[in-house]
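A note from the maintainers: we've had questions about how concatenated examples are separated. There is no special marker in the raw files; a new sequence line simply starts the next protein. For clarity in this README we add a label.
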Amino acid sequence: MPNEEPLNPETIKQEEEYLRKVHPTAEDIPGCMKLFDDFLLCNVISSQARSLYRYGEMATCTPKLEEFKFCMSLKGMHPEEKRDVWIRRRAEWWAHRRAGKSSEDVWDVRTEPLENFPPRRLDPNVQAPRTIE
């Protein structure tokens, strides 16, 4: 996450506290096989098509590969130490995500309703003029 302003340590601490509650033991963090599966699933045609439809571009699977490689780098650690390092990394990721832009930033809150919305319902008893003869 280069060229980004530094995160508030309090934000990271909040994320760490939450993740420690959600993942109370070392067995609760995802294993390397799960992360590798996530990486492979990112590359399948259905995921790529969904990304193309939703965002107009192919999915970038590099972050999932980086998560897998990070997990592999923790293989020699004690399970509790591995959990602490993983929680710290995820907390930083969530803090960056919270500090960054979201899809909610795109929309402006409306202060008054749209005109003529919802559209008036046509009276089924009134015969509409035919346009094609």
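[label: protein 2]
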Amino acid sequence: MTFTTMMDMSDLKHRGMRGIGMARSASSDSSMLLPLAGDAATSPLSNVSGHKRPGVQRSFSLSARHRSYSPNSEGTSTFYKVVAGLLLIAVAAMGYVLIHSPESRDRMKHETNHENAAMSKLQQRVATFEQENLKLTRELQLAEQQARNLERTEGEREQVQQLDAKIKQLVQQKHTTHDSIQQYSMKQLMARFGPGPHRVEIKLEFDPHSNIAHDALGGDRIVIEMAPEADMPHSVYWFLEQVERGLYNGASFHRNAHHVIQAGPVSYFSTPPDAHLAQNFRQSGFSSVLFQEYSPNFPHTQYTLGYAGRPGGPDFYISVRDNSVIHGPGGQSAYNDPGEADPCFAKVIDGVEAVERMRRSAVKPGEYHRMEHFVGIRYMKRIIEEENQEEEHQQGSGEQHEINNEEGGVHVEQ
């Protein structure tokens, strides 16, 4: 690894091959001969300080010309070049052997793995630093926000406290108003309709073109019983006033949402064109309830009636399944006060088959689930208590049978 940093291997090989070529060129030249050690004419030892060695006479000649030996001669230069080339070749060979030896490869592999591990650790530390930096940035932003909150003036704090006290006062006034409305409704209910239970008959009319017009499994009459006055005095009084004034006569069940069947001042095929249903509700003063009355004693179980909308009415619905959660407190989060609930004010006691018949009605496309053919409300009327007692008396009287005794007398057996 040390040799590769000092000199490129290819450069070493190139220089070595160049030196070998020069050596071969020098040796192949026939006109160039190196001087012999014993040559008296050319040896540097033959004449030292002008003295000739006695008894030795040798001659050396080049066939046509004579060249004396000199360190700067062309032969000497070539010799040195050959030696330098061979040295370069030896150095390159040693470097190549050192690089490609098993020990060198293992050492290089070990060093590479060590460098990779160090780089991985460095990247992990960088990622950790980035996460810590992000966390510190968020903490700094939170601290700045808290500092801004603490910078509120004393006047702002007093204003907030005053608003809180005002809200509590309004809530208390709201509850007081609700209590007053319930007390007034109870008085009016007792004065107008007397104590309950109160029952109402709903007479239906089906469109002959609807898919349920000839449904033999359902009837066309529903009887409902109002909730106890102690639980829902305002809603019970409100609905009985709407029925007594005939405001629902000519209206219809117009929506089949699969969990409720909704009715309201919407005309159907038999409604007179000059009915003005919605206008009649507004002019009567009994369109929507005065507040969202609710009692946990009378939840939105199956076949109960509740007012729809905010404020509730005049539309109402019949639950065809248990809707205690979605129509109870907090179930209608889309409205301004999510804690409110739909008033639940009555339950079906007769005519469930008619309710299920409407449940099978076809609907138009869309989220509202409007019926293709509305089911008309021919009329609603309050069932008077005297009529109830007369019906119960007739049903309980039974059949009378005449039995002749042995004396010819007649006995009436109930």
